[in-house]
Each structure stands twice: as C-alpha cells, then as structure tokens.
Amino acid sequence: MLRYLVIMGGMVGACGPAAAQTSAVAPAMPELSGGAHSPGANASAAPTVYFVADEMPQFPGGSAAMLKFMGSRLNYPTAALDRNVSGKVYVTFTVDPEGRLHDPHVVRGLGSGLDEEALRLVRLMPWWNPGKLKGQPVWVALTLPITFRAL
C-alpha cells in the first residue's frame, strides 16, 4: 500500500515584493440593491487588500489544526502516485474581514491532479480568523504552500 504525506509550509503574503503591501480588488460578492442605484447612493468601492497585517489571518486552531484538517481530507491523485510526483503547490487566496476565503487559485503547481487537489482542500476549509490592522479586521491576501510527498 502506498502512503503519502501533505505538509503545510509557512504562509506568506501573496505575490510581489515586500514594498507592495496593498492592492485594490473588485468586490467578491457585489451587493444587490434590487434595481438601479438611487441618486446620491455611494457606490461600494473595491476593498483594500493587504499583504501584511499586524495580525495575519489564521486557520482556526492554528497550523497543527490545519495539518490535521488537510491530512484527514486528502485524496492523493492516482495519476500523481503512478508518476511518483511530489512537491509543492502554491495556492493564493484572500481572507475577508469575516474570515471567508475568496478566489483561491494555484500560482505555481505540479500537475498530475495535485493542483486540483490543493484547490479542493482550500475550498473545503472553514472560515479563518481574519487578519487585523490596528485592531480592525481587514482583507489579507495569502499564499499557502502545500507540500505533497508520496512515501
């Protein structure tokens, strides 16, 4: 019987040099007003997304809980096992002020079904503890390296 292992690396701020700490993105879920905007109503501006915050977002229970979560739900793809493919898949996503994960996508993958499995695992995750800047919850972009290793 083949065995496998998934290892979570440390999370890093998503994309770009350390000097670029914020970015504007389109709202993930546009507000529905039931019709045309009323005159004088403020249009919702795109939120500011930070790459670094005073308190970075965390999986509920910390890294150990995330490893347990991933390990219990991992389905190592047969194609990757057959080809003995191992390595890291980097998934980036944004955590909103409520802790929901938005727009997960692979920024560097391995193929053989491992990219899809990494995305599936991130999409299954519960809401995170949001990142905070000056005590206020903010949008924070993260890149999560997920290491797959066939044993």
Structure commentary:
The chain has helices at 62-73, 78-83, 114-124; strands at 4-8, 12-13, 22-24, 48-50, 87-95, 101-108, 131-133, 136-150. The chain has 151 residues and is of the alpha+beta class. It starts with a strand and ends with a strand. Mean pLDDT is 79; it is low at 14-41.
Relevant terms:
single chain, 151 residues, alpha+beta, eight-stranded mixed beta sheet, 3 helices
Describe how the helices and strands are arranged.
Elements: E1 4-8, E2 12-13, E3 22-24, E4 48-50, H1 62-73, H2 78-83, E5 87-95, E6 101-108, H3 114-124, E7 131-133, E8 136-150
Parallel strand pairs: 4-8
Antiparallel strand pairs: 1-8, 2-8, 3-4, 5-6, 5-8, 7-8
Mean pLDDT: 79
Measured as a percent range, the helix fraction is: 10-25%
Measured by DSSP, the beta-strand proportion falls in 25-35%
Secondary-structure-derived class? alpha+beta
Number of alpha- plus pi-helical segments: 3
Shape: elongated
Low-confidence stretches: 14-41
- Order of helical and strand elements: EEEEHHEEHEE
Largest sheet: 8 strands, mixed
Backbone CA Rg: 18 Å
- How many distinct beta strands? 8
Alpha carbon gap, first and last residue: 10 Å
